[in-house]
Design brief:
The chain is mainly β. The chain has no helices and 5 strands.
Length: 86
């Protein structure tokens, strides 16, 4: 996988791409979803990640966790480490 390419499948219908060196109208900008503890994934074993976009009255943030091959706690709960103000 090209690390410069970000793709998103929205409800199985829409794909959007981001290339840092190219401006594409309507594209999403790249985001980094760190894990507090690294997860080792062996070749051929699927990595299952869950992402949630959360909204409050004054901010928007993402929360995420891994459920396979191991489970992690939810990262960035309530936008604790990163959020965008409205």
């Amino acid at each position: 996988m090209n690390p410069r390419l970000y793709d998103k499948n929205i409800e199985g219908k829409c794909f959007k791409f981001c290339f840092p060196d190219i401006s594409i109208s309507g594209s999403l900008f790249p985001i980094f979803f760190p894990l507090r503890t690294p997860v080792c994934v062996q070749p051929g074993i699927p990595l299952i990640v869950h992402l949630w976009r959360c909204c409050g009255s004054t901010k928007v943030w993402y929360e995420w966790c891994v459920s396979s091959p191991v489970s992690t706690p939810v990262q960035n709960p309530n936008g604790r480490s990163y959020w965008v103000g409205l």
